Amino acid sequence: MTDDSEVFIWDSGALSLDFLNTRRFDQGRVHEGISTPRRLEMWLAQCGALPSEGSSFTASPPAARMLLLEGTRLRDEIQQAMHAFTSEAPIPLSSLHTINRVLDSSRVSLRLVSEDGTSSLSEHETGSELLTLLAPIATSAAELLAGADPHRVRQCASNTCVTWFLDSSKNGRRRWCSMARCGNPAKAKKHWDKQRAADAADAAERVEARAAQP
Q1: Among 10-24, 77-91, 124-138, where is mean pLDDT lowest?
Q2: Do the Cβ atoms of 68 and 127 come closer than 8 Å?
Q3: What burial letters (b/e) apply to 53-71, b meaning 16+ CB within 10 Å?
Q4: Cα–Cα distance, 21 to 11 (Å, whole number)
Q5: For residue 28, what is the DSSP state?
Q6: Do 135 and 106 contact (CB within 8 A), yes or no?
Q7: DSSP H helical segments within the chain, as ranges?
Q8: In Å, how far are 50, 128, 141, 186 from 100, measured between CA atoms?
Q9: SS3 of residue 22 by DSSP
Q10: Do residues 16 and 137 make contact, with C-beta atoms less than 8 angstroms apart?
Q11: C-alpha span between 208 and 118 (Å, rounded)
Q12: Mean pLDDT, residues 157-176
């Protein structure tokens, strides 16, 4: 059961992949990080997608449920797009439509503001507010799909983890979503399995040696 005290993972290297990682495996079971509108609101607030003055969807249960529906739909389609992209296959049309639909929702207008005798230009979103909140995620996904090396977008090498990441290492050999979460435990398990196999082999040799004694 997800609660508000659980933290999100922000180390994928791309906002859209961070969003994909709100659904992951935890001890062999699917862990849904944005299971409620409240959880999605927390995620959007932490990544800076919520405007500083707040959003009307937070005060409207129907709007909050709609945003959650739109958000999970976008996440599903980005995931399908990333699977195709990393396999160097065509991006599904449904994924293109969903991502572009969110991108089209964002309309930015400039407004001249003056405070304390200083004038400046301020950007204001004029599109559909609910979809506009998801626009940074769609933009991140579009940038990856259009410009990233498909071999650098990966999922964790652990058999029990589906976490996505963008490999920005110099040699391009990153395998784990995080050394702390998966890399070190996997290496420790490999070492333990190797040691256990060696111990078993030694024990078998000792048994054979005793059996060969007259």
Answers
A1: 124-138
A2: no
A3: eebebbeeeebbeebbebb
A4: 10
A5: T
A6: yes
A7: 15-20, 37-47, 61-86, 93-105, 129-147, 184-212
A8: 20, 14, 10, 39
A9: coil
A10: yes
A11: 89
A12: 91
Query: Could you tell me the two tokens for 12?
Result: 């994928």
Query: Between 132 and 153, where is the model more confident?
Result: 153
- Kindly report the pTM of this predicted structure: 0.78
> If DSSP codes are grouped into helix, strand and coil, which group holds residue 131?
helix
**What are 139's two structure tokens?**
């933009």
Q: Could you tell me the two tokens for 114?
A: 């003056």
**Phi then psi dihedrals of residue 124, to 5 deg:** -135, 135
Phi, psi at 174, each rounded to 5°: -65, 135
Write out the DSSP string of 62-114: HHHHHHHHHHHHHHHHHHHHHHHHHTT-PPPHHHHHHHHHHHHH--EEEEEEE
Residue listed under structure tokens 């945003």: 67
Comparison of pLDDT for 20 and 4, the residue scoring more: 20
pLDDT of 7: 84
Give the integer Cα–Cα distance in Å for 3 and 194: 39
Distances (CA, A) of 139 to 35, 99, 143: 23, 8, 6
- The yes-or-no verdict on residue 191 having pLDDT over 50 is no
